[in-house]
Amino acid sequence: MKLLHAFALAAICLAGPAAAQVASPYAIDIPPWFATSFLDFRDEVADAARTGRRVMIYVGQDGCPYCTKLMTANFSQADIVATTRERFVPIALNLWGDRETTWVDGGAQAEKALAQRLGVQFTPTLIFLDEGGNVVARLDGYWPPQRFRAVLDYVAAKRETVEPLADWLAVRAKETPRPPRADEPFLMRAPLDLAKRKGGKPLAVVVESADCEACDEMHREAFGRRDVLRELGRFDVARILLGSSAPLRSPSGKATTAGAFARELGVAYTPAVVFFDASGREVFRIGAYLRPFHFASSFAYVADGAYRDEPSFQRWLRDRADRMRARGQRVELWE
User: Fold this and answer.
1) pLDDT of 244
2) Cα separation of 234 and 123, whole Å?
3) Rounded Cα distance, 291 and 144, in Å
4) pLDDT tens across 236-287, in order?
5) Is the pLDDT of residue 303 over 90?
6) Mean pLDDT of the chain
7) Does pTM surpass 0.85?
8) From the DSSP assignment, how many helices (H) and strands (E) are in the chain?
9) DSSP characters over 80-146
10) CATH topology of domain 192-326
11) Which of 61, 86, 207, 228 keeps 20 to 30 A from 333, CA to CA?
């Protein structure tokens, strides 16, 4: 790996800073300080550990507005860039790429096969590996700068053995206090019994936190759109708050509280949506910032049962957008 990095450095010095990106196989232009790699993650993890750093894997794709947002909003901030360069070895993968990779267990596969193996459903996805090649944190989708910065600090400080990411974020990514939100008419009423539901609909559990700008945006924008409400009508929709002591019966029938159930689900980002089929089995989840088109599409993916035939949400989403355009419908990914 040292030989590869030496060659890469020589090429950059001879050809100039932009040369490293001219023939880039990556989806979405990445910063020139991302690592040049043979994509053998056994070597990358070992090399990173020797320099006191950890591996950060970025998975992106062409036409992804959230990937663009990560690059322009997050990686334009000096402190985020400094932390990433000093504490991590950032490696970019293309969700649909064909380059050969070797995972930490020695398994060889193309980028797109590795992305599938890692269960990548949203882009960007960022996966953080420890010194043993274990996943210690994962962001399935775009996280705005304040929260992203806190995740970098969490992983760099090796806090995963001390406290859950959600607890770290609750203290270090606080937002401006906001008034309580009213319940929309489509929400299930308390006390929530998620095990006894009528009509055979799938279940969507919306997890929020009290002072959450993105939660307010979801209520204001997503829940105000007809296409979103149409998809919501196909579900039993429950809303719970992180840290809440409100009584709740889980889909499995366990008596618990809303806050304990959210912790059991492993929710760190809010708002999150965890989808369960009619039998109470989790089948999909949203755990990052989404604009209304992708938000509504996530509900459709579950309600249509598409997850059973097409395990790749991104492939299904691409085909859905193509079908909508063919019918003359407008598709705005960031509207």
Assistant:
1) 94
2) 26
3) 13
4) 999 999 999 999 999 999 999 999 999 999 999 999 999 999 889 999 999 9
5) yes
6) 90
7) yes
8) 14, 13
9) HHHHHHHHEEEEEEETT---EEE-TTS-EEEHHHHHHHTT--SSSEEEEE-TTS-EEEEEESB--HH
10) Glutaredoxin (3.40.30)
11) 207
* Whether 46 contacts 2, CB under 8 Å: no
Report residue 38 as tokens.
């043979």
| Overall CATH class of domain 2-172 | alpha beta
Integer-rounded Cα radius of gyration of the chain = 21
Backbone φ and ψ for 202, nearest 5 degrees, come out as -70, 165
The DSSP annotation for 213-274 comes to: HHHHHHHHTGGG-HHHHHHHTTSEEEEEETT---EEE-TT--EEEHHHHHHHHT--SSSEEE
Spatial distance between the Cα atoms of 219 and 133, rounded to a whole number of angstroms = 39
What is the reported pLDDT for 177?
Answer: 85
Buried-state track 220-238, b at ≥16 Cβ within 10 A, e below 16: eebbebebbeebbeebbbb
* Residue 293, both tokens: 């088109």
Q: Classify the C-alpha dihedral 294-204-314-263 as positive or negative.
A: positive
Q: Which of 149, 147, 153, 122 is nearest to 54 (CA)?
A: 153
- Tell me if 2-172 shares its fold with 192-326: yes
Give the contacts of 279 (CB within 8 A, at least 6 positions apart).
none
The one-letter amino acid code at 68 reads T
Q: Any idea where the domains of the chain sit in the sequence? A: 2-172, 192-326
- Half-sphere exposure (Cβ direction) of 89: Cα atoms closer than 13 Å: 26
Place of tokens 């938000």: 295
What's the rounded Cα separation, in Å, for the pair 68 and 64? 7
Residue the block writes with tokens 């932390």: 83
